[in-house]
Every structure is written in C-alpha cells, then in structure tokens.
Amino acid sequence: MVPTDYYVMLSAILFTIGVIGVLTRRNALVVFMSVELMLNSANLALVAFSRQWGHVDGQILTFFVITVAAAEVAVGLALLVGIFRTRRTTNVDEVNTMRG
Amino acid sequence: MELLYTLVPLIIVLPLLGALVNTFAIRDGRRAGFIASAAVLLAFVLALVATATLAGLPHEEQTRVDFMLWQWIQAGTLSVPFGFLFDPLSAVMVLLITGVGGLIHVFSIGYMAHDARPVRYFVYLNLFVSAMLILVLANNYLLLFLGWEGVGLCSYLLIGHNFERKEARYASMKAFVVNRIGDFGLMLAILALFYVFGTLNFGGIFPRAAELLAGQQVQWIFGPTLIASAISFCMLIGVTGKSAQIPLWVWLPDAMAGPTPASALIHAATMVTSGVYLIVRSHSIFLQSQSVSVLTVYIGTATAFVAASIAIGQYDIKRVLAFSTVSQLGFMVAAAGMGAYTAAMFHLLTHGVFKALLFLGAGSVIHGAHEVQDMRRMGGFRKAMPRTFWTYMVGTLALAGIAPFAGFWSKDEIIGAAFHGGRFGTFTIAGIFLIITAVLTAFYMGRQIFLVFWGEQRDHSYHPHESEPIMTVPLMILAIGAAVAGVINLPFFEGIGLAHILDHFLEPVFEVTGAVTEPPKFDLLLASITVILALGALFVAYRVYALRQWKKTFRDPLARVLGVFFEGFEQRWYADDVYDSVVIRPFKAIARFLSRVFDPRGIDGLVNGAARLIGLGGAGLREAQTGYVRSYALVFLIGVLAVIGYFGFMTVR
Known about the structure:
The structure holds 2 protein chains of 2 kinds.
Chain A: H1 4-24, H2 28-53, H3 57-87
Helix pairs in contact in A: 1-2, 2-3
Chain B: H1 2-24, H2 29-56, E1 66-75, E2 78-85, H3 88-111, H4 118-137, H5 141-159, H6 166-197, H7 202-213, E3 217-220, E4 223-226, H8 227-242, H9 251-254, H10 260-269, H11 274-281, H12 283-286, H13 290-312, H14 317-338, H15 341-368, H16 381-384, H17 386-400, H18 406-420, H19 428-452, H20 469-484, H21 501-512, H22 524-546, H23 558-562, H24 564-570, H25 575-622, H26 629-652
Antiparallel strand pairs in B: 1-2, 3-4
C-alpha cells in the first residue's frame, strides 16, 4: 500500500503548483484551472487522511468540495464569458477597473 | 398682620401687571403712561397702608412679617423660598420706590409725549419698579439677587432707550458690563453665605451671624482672612458696581444717555441705592469685619470727593447731577461703613427725594429748551420757566445741605457720625473730606443754577418754555418733600415725639441682630460750620458765574485759576482713559488675537488638520487597491500563510 505520506506530499506539490499558477498566470481561464488544481489537491489530501484513519468524514467533505467547485466553475465561467464579451480579453491584468 | 400677607405681594404685582397690560394691550403712549402711573401710585397707596399696619404692630413683631409664597428652588440642602420680608427697612424703601417712582411716572407722561417709543418706555419703567420692589422685599439672598439682576436689566434697557444714538448704545453696554463685574462679587458672597450658614434666608443668617462668624478664619487670596471679611468684601464689590463707587463708578455718568426721568428714577433715587440697602440689610455680617467696614468708609469718602470735584468741571446739566449722585452715594456708603446705618438710610431717603426732584427739574429744563443740555447755551431761564426754577432752587438747597432743607439733616448726621465715632471708632480724615465734599457740592450746584437760571440767555437759537402741569406738579410735590423730608429724623424736638423718628422706626431691624445704638447727638458747631461753608460756596459760585455775561461757548473761569486740576475735573480724572488703556484695550487686543490668530490657526487648524490627516491616510491606503486580481490573491495567500504559521508555531510550542 502506498503510504499516506506520499499522497500528502503529492497533494502539497499540486497545491503549490496551483498557487503559483494563480499568482503568475494572466489568462483568466488558466487562473481558474489553477484554482481547480488547488481544490483537487485538497480533495486528494482529504481522501488520503480518510483512508489512513478509517473514517468516511474526509470522503464526505470531498463530495461537498466537488459540488461547490462545480457550482463555482459555473458562476466563474459565466463571469469569464461576460468579461470577454464586454472587454474582448481574458487577461486578468487588464481587468482593473476597480482600482482605487 | 394677615393683611400684610396679601398687601405685600400685591405691591409687587401691580407694576408688573401694568407692564404686562402695556406690553400686550396698549399702543397709545399717553394711555400707557396713565396706566403705568396708576399702577405705581396704587402700589404707593398700598405701601402706605402696609407701612401703617406694620407700624401698628408690637415692636418685636415688626421684623416677623416673613412669609413664603411658594417653594422656589429645592435641591439637596439648598431650599429657597419665593418669600418676602416686610420689616421697617423694607417698608421705607418700598415707600421711596413707589412714592418717588409714581411721581416720576407721572412726569414721564409729559416728558415722553414726543418720544418715538413711549409704550416701551413705560413697560420698562414698570418692570423696573417691580424688580426693585422684589430686591427690597426679598426674604433671602437669591430672591434679592433676582431683583438685583432685574433692575440691572431694566437699567440697561432704559439707558439704551434711544438706541438710534451711538452713545446710548455704548452707555447701556458699559453699564451692563460694569455692573456684571459687581454682580459677580455679590454672587460669590451669596455662595459663601450658603457655605457658612447652609441657608440663604435672612432669618437664618442675620441672628446667627455674630455667633457663627466671630473670629472664624479661612485661607483666602490675602492669606488667612476672617470669613466675615471675605463675605463682606465680595459684597462690597457688588455694592461698588450697583452703587457706582470707586472703582466701578464709571458707568453711572454715561448712563445719563437714557431718558431723563429714567435717570431720575433708576440712576438717582432707587437702583443705585440698592448697594447701600444691601450693606444695611447685611449689617450683621459687616459688623463682624472691622477691616472691610473701614475700607467701605474710605471707598465711599474717596468716591464722594472725587465725583464732587468732577461735577465742578462738567458743562452738561445732567452730567453734573450724575456726578453729584455718585458723590452722594459715596456719602451713604461711607455712613454704612461707619456703622451709622440709620444715617445712611436717612440720606438715601432724602437724597432719593431731592435728587429725583433735581433730575426731573433738569428734564423739565431740557424739555423746555428743546433738548439742549449744555449749560453754556442756557442762561436766564428764571423768567422762562418759573415753576421749574423755584422747585429746582429747593432741590439745590436741599442737596447743598442748607438748613432746614432735607439734605442738611441727613448729610449732617453722616458727618457727625464720622467725627463722633460709632462702632468702628472715629473717622476724622474721612469726616474732613466729607465736609470738603459738602462744600464742593454746594459750589457745583450753585454753579449750575447760576448758569442755567441767572443772567441772560446766551444762545438764542431756541425759545425756552415752561413745561406743562403734568410735569411741574410732580416737581412741586417733590419740592415740598425735599424741603420737609428732614422731619423723618430730626435730631431734636424729643418732647413732642418728632425726634429720631426713622431711628426708632428702624430699631427693630437692628434689635434682631443685637446692633442697636443710641441715636446720634446733634452737634451744633459741626452743623453750623458745614452750613456756613456751604453758603459761602454758593456765594462764591454766585460771584464767579452770575455776575458776568458769558459767550455761549465760554471756557469755565475756574480753568484759569485751577489750571491742570480743572482739566482733571473736566476729563473725570482720566478714569475712563485709564480703564480704556488698562482694561479695555488689552481686552480687545486679546479678543482680536483670539479671533484673528487663535481661532483660524488654532481651533480651525485643529479641526482641519484632523480632516487632512484622515484624507492623507485614505490617499495612502488607496494605493493598495491596485485592481489586479493577482495581487489580491497574493495578499490573500500571505494572510493564510500568516494564520497557518501562527497556529503552527503555537502548536509546536
């Protein structure tokens, strides 16, 4: 059996990749995908711990995360389409009208 | 006695009612005048009845007509009734106020006939009488203070009656402000009295004063001081304000900007004497403080002398009388300081009558001379206004202290008290100065009548005429009073019950506090000296002023003889200039600094500075809102890391 440590490490690596993606990429779609990566790395960790301790709590929480992520993607992509229609761009650095 | 409980409040209510009716229902000046006069004269009749009732009571009952209408203020241990004390001292004051006041009201009907705002004038006059009656009838210090402030307000309103004229406006403000300084002293005295006695009622203070104040000391601005001295000193400040004594006397001469009858009532006969009344009323406190009483004597004497000297150098007919009033008030205050309280009250009463007469006479002269007030432009009015002339002569002789007119008896009693001594020993120097003042008084009054009534008219740009009977009749009544008022306290005729009537009448007031003294003996030598000197002064005035025909802008011949001294008299010893440079100008400079520098830079700077600081902070924080999603995300991440780091650190530890 693969030790839980490996899962957790993989999860941490995936999460870090996600964070770097959110912070460095300018394309809104890629930023989105990075966020998804972070969410799923969390899911992986949850499932791994669930198996480790023999509880289903982690798996149940994972389902919640997947559901909420789906809803979030629906809203997020709709916003993205809206932004692209009005501003003809998906570059997040160009969408700074809320600047103080 | 029950009758008095109804009469006394009614005496106060009548003039108040007159003021209300005139305020709300009357538009016609003459009608307002009749209503106002009727109210005060009716009050006088009631006062006569009340006094007669009081005189009929047993001796020790006469100070017990002390009753409460309602509870006025009730807070903690402070309990102030709205109550009145009608004792012989109040009674004589009430008689003077309503009697002389009534005549002045009647005179005003004629005098104010051509005024722009006669109704307003009569409302204020009635209101004044009411406030003055509250002052003298109050049975506690707070109610007395209400009257004290009330008369001050009415004085302000009446001085400023002709507010179109700049000097009237300024004079009214001056009177108000200077009086306020004095009132502050009285207020401190009242607070101290409450602190010591726990009550403000006369009945709770005076009989206990000797026992509670004797030898009691307190740490004060001058080091350890007798409590009695501290209280009476504060009261004395109030007295100098209201009764126009040095150093707060400067407002009274300017107060002559008001209508002449108002000057007669407020600034000669009644209001300005309330300081003297206050001392006599509070005599049991003053008696405990030798030092302040002596100070009172010298303040009064100095005021009497200085004001009399200034009166010599004035050309305005009313101003001479104004300084004369200040001077005579000095006599009363000096007498009150000597402990010769009856003498002070005696002079207060006679002065009230003859000075009102003189002021109304001056009013009649001014009225008949078409508002001319400069005595140099008058002359020869003897023929044009004979009734005014004769009554004025009586007033002059009374003021000059010529026997047997009223002023002689009262002034002589004060001078006698100075030489023969009383509770605080003799005051020889003060007495000598008072005699000199009496001589000066005779001189300036002689100067006045010889300039106004003798010789030929010097300025022919107007035609003087006699005033109508509504003005001359009050003058005649007052003239009779000024001639015979001395009978209320003659020093002899013991056998037929005429001697010392006032002394005996006021005795119960002093019995309560254990301050009764023997009525003073008559000193024939002293009286003869003062009368001869006064007659001499009148004669000198006749020689100087009556024998030559002056031009209408002549300079007083005394100026050549007296040189700089006369200039001092003319310029009121530069008192106003001194106050102007010592008090008013620094005060204005501070005010200007505050308004032009401190307010815009200091106060506004503080407020605007706070606003600008917030604005700057906002502008700085604004930079953080870049609008870049990624930078927000970074901040978010840092925040998360910080939280995790913190909890991680805490757990490991």
